Amino acid sequence: MPDTLSSPQAPDAFAWPVRVYIEDTDAGGIVFYANYLRFMERARTELLRHLGFPRIETIDESVMFVVHRLSLAYRQPAELDDELTVTAIPERIGNTYMLFRQTVSRGGVILVEAEVQVACIHRETRKPTRLPPLMRQRLESVSSQGE
What we know:
Blueprint: E1 14-19, H1 35-50, E2 63-74, E3 83-93, E4 97-106, E5 109-122, H2 133-142
Antiparallel strand pairs: 1-3, 2-5, 3-4, 4-5
């Protein structure tokens, strides 16, 4: 796990609220570890919606997006009925990928940190392809670093 994940949450990060339901937990009432990935997926999807892309087809019908690489650090557990905040910050925008820094927090305390690299692939060939220009432009406008 890179040390870069331990940096504090950016104040201008895109944030999405999530409540923990029974279906998100294990038998002990703790959020099942894989469900944090679902929460993060929702935040990335809502960020794209916020940037003007309500559905994947509105971006470009010939592309798809897949998680290529993922790095997570679990700090503390979330529990049943917790109100969480999930962030999605475009950290770096490459020609064929987007790197997001994401956190899941409760009351300002970071519970989970992640770096998620999402690749852009051609729908038919499944090979890497360039990000749609408008999407890249809008992501770069809110990116913490750009490339």
